[in-house]
Amino acid sequence: MTTTRTSRPAGDAGPTLADLDEDQLLERIFPALPGGPAVLVGPGDDTALLRARSGAVLATTDAMVRGRDWLDEWSTGEDVGRKLVAQNAADIAAMGGRTTALLVTLVADPATSVAWVSDMTTGLAAAAAEAGIAVVGGDLSSAPTGTLALSVTALGELDGEPVLRSGAQVGDQVAVHGTLGWSAAGLLLLQRDSATRAPDLVRYHRAPLPAYEEGPRAAASGATAMLDISDGLVRDAGRIAKASDVRIALDTGLLADDIGRLVPAVGADGARDCVLTGGEEHSLLACFPRAGVPSGWRAVGVVQDGSGVTVDGTVTVGGGWDHFARRATP
Amino acid sequence: MTTTRTSRPAGDAGPTLADLDEDQLLERIFPALPGGPAVLVGPGDDTALLRARSGAVLATTDAMVRGRDWLDEWSTGEDVGRKLVAQNAADIAAMGGRTTALLVTLVADPATSVAWVSDMTTGLAAAAAEAGIAVVGGDLSSAPTGTLALSVTALGELDGEPVLRSGAQVGDQVAVHGTLGWSAAGLLLLQRDSATRAPDLVRYHRAPLPAYEEGPRAAASGATAMLDISDGLVRDAGRIAKASDVRIALDTGLLADDIGRLVPAVGADGARDCVLTGGEEHSLLACFPRAGVPSGWRAVGVVQDGSGVTVDGTVTVGGGWDHFARRATP
Predict the structure, then answer these.
(1) Between B221 and which of A288, B31, B205, B294 could a Cys-Cys bridge form, CB atoms 3.0 to 4.6 Å apart?
(2) Cβ of B114 under 8 Å from any chain A Cβ?
(3) Sequence-ordered list of residues with C-beta below 8 angstroms from that of B150, at least 6 positions apart, any chain
């Protein structure tokens, strides 16, 4: 994945959305969008039509808003497009599925530059194409001054049964695939104007790249519960605990490598916080029957009788991001 | 359909979204959402899982933004929820399909009142339930001050082949099912502070109610091309003409009843404009082989050799709504 810093922010000079009519804008966007074998009817008609071989379809939706989910100073349009793919496709993967198609809605101040929309489309189309995902439709809507929001719906298919959050069993291993805390650490570095200290973390914050194929692989390996880490390891583990009516006991001894990896960038306390509570990581968290953790996954705890989440035996109330709260926890 | 005027505008007093955390808000929303036989996994996990009996799924998305798509002075949250269902389900119907499920994203200023969100949910859930549609997922995101936007994705199923815009044949009849110009006329009355002159038109503007079942029925009757009227009869007819590489000749003599119906409310010129160019109607426009127009549909023109749209033999450039244009035509 390349994430260049050359594209322009949304409010930069050049033509704006108000300078093009909708058809002209769509003519610029459509050719960039990847198709795929699942697409029976693509963009341009009333709806898309997708093949759903298995006789069922997974569906999820996730939005990003400028100023809340990204800042133009820190993220290009291309980053935003890539991140939209990641957060939606990770949800499909977390059910054990493969994403087949995306629909994208842009709600934008007409003063938004066409260049930004082109960059976002480039990033979204590239990330989708790399993952074998078609982009099959969308909508454009004008918005009040300063507003730029994107909403993506992802559709996907399962090979077998879905892996829900509610299937964890006492005695299961709790395991992670992918990084922990990189997105949060990258954000901290941007906030401290220290992006050069760890460009890989910053890059991951801007455009996470979870291993989507691990979702179906975990399902085939017998995962009993799974989700992707959107709001932090502790909080998301709490969701599995609640849905499965179990306790999840996390062990920071098993997270030592994850924490150690971040210490040079954000210090010891920052590293621990990022690993335990950092959101937007989109790595997969799953439970597996004892001794059933697949290669490439690493155990981070166990499933016990009880409720909630413990960290090294201490009950925690969580942390992580709440969209509408007056004060968000870090 | 009842559209009471009792619910509060989005910025009214009472608790706001900032007073609840996301889980508390979702706990208020989830119980209102209709399920259905197509839902294998509903809201609350990473994604929904829907049955797709036919082995394929229709997918479309459409957004509404406060200040552009509705004004709080004129539309309640319930109206907005109903309109969201209508505009998305009409797109599925226009392919000849039946809507099975919706996903809903709310992008809102945290100062938005919880009461407005509850009203919107009520309207959306009621309109969905009346049409046999499940609501299976969504997303919540905070937005800059003053912004309130909703994005809905609709999924649906086909009994047979999809009816595209591109199948119209020279010699076909062009026909409409449902009203023409009511939404635009209702908007004009609101703009003129004359809503009491024709409450039925105003009600239709606030919450259109197309006959979704006519889409599959038209498909079964041999419709060669179809769409729903989102941007005005002339402009949408132009879309079929372009996609099918034909000319569509509209005859206002066939629209006399439609125009006459609106004259008392908006005058003769206004009535003609509303019928020909009024958007957001979501009635169905379709082409049928000669003598194949189903009962309940009425012919409004014919398909000819050529391109574009004529009205009584005169070529027209259209009209209708463009989302980002500096000056929208009425």
Answers:
(1) B294
(2) no
(3) B63, B64, B65, B80, B84, B104, B105, B106, B107, B120
- Taking the C-alpha atoms of residue A11 and residue A49, their distance in angstroms, rounded to an integer, is 35
Q: What is the pLDDT of residues B291-314, one digit of tens each?
A: 899 999 999 999 999 999 999 999
Give the ranges where chain B is alpha helix by DSSP (H).
22-29, 77-93, 114-130, 182-191, 199-206, 214-220, 233-244, 256-277
The full set of domain ranges for chain A reads: 17-158, 173-316
Which residues does chain A have within 8 Å of residue B67's beta carbon, measured at their own beta carbons?
144
Tell whether B45 lies on the interface with A, counting CB pairs under 8 A: yes
CB of A25 within 8 A of CB of A117? Answer: yes
From B247's Cα to the closest Cα of chain A, the distance in A is 18
Neighbours of A151 (CB within 10 A): 34
Residue B59's CB is within 10 A of a number of other CB atoms, namely: 25
CATH top-level class of A173-316: alpha beta
Of A46, A62, A91, the CB nearest to B94: A46
| CATH, domain range B21-158 | 3.30.1330.10
Contacts of residue A24, Cβ cutoff 8 Å, sequence gap at least 6: none
Nearest to A127 by CA among A227, A209, A4: A209
Of B265, B183, B261, nearest to B228 by C-alpha is B183
Interface residue B136 vs chain A (CB under 8 A)? yes
* Burial of A32 per CB tally in 10 Å (0-12, 13-18, 19+): middle
Residues of B in contact with A50 (CB under 8 A): 56-59
Q: What count of other Cβ atoms lies within 10 Å of the Cβ of residue B13?
A: 8
What is the interface pTM, i.e. ipTM, of the complex?
0.89
Q: With contact defined as beta carbons under 8 Å apart, do B52 and A56 qualify?
A: yes
Q: Residue B143 and residue A57: Cβ atoms within 8 Å?
A: no
B151 touches chain A (CB under 8 A): yes
Q: Closest to B149 (Cβ–Cβ): which among A107, A137, A146?
A: A107
| Amino acid (1-letter code) at residue A215 | G
How far does A115 lie from chain B, in Å, by closest CA? 15
With an 8 Å Cβ cutoff, are A324 and B142 in contact? Answer: yes
pLDDT in tens, A282-294: 999 999 999 899 9
Q: Which two tokens stand for residue A115?
A: 């260049």
Predicted local distance difference test score (pLDDT) of residue A36: 87
Q: In B, which residues are within 8 Å of A57 by CB distance? A: 49-50, 52, 57, 155
Q: Do B17 and A324 touch (CB under 8 A)?
A: yes
Q: Under CATH, which number does the domain A17-158 receive? A: 3.30.1330.10
Report the distance separating Cα B312 and Cα A256, nearest Å.
78
CA distances from A3 to A34, A85, B302 (A): 19, 14, 52
Based on its alpha-carbon atoms, the radius of gyration of chain B, rounded to whole angstroms, reads 20
Which tens digits make up the pLDDT trace of A106-125?
999 999 999 999 999 999 99
Nearest-by-CA chain B residue for A144: B147
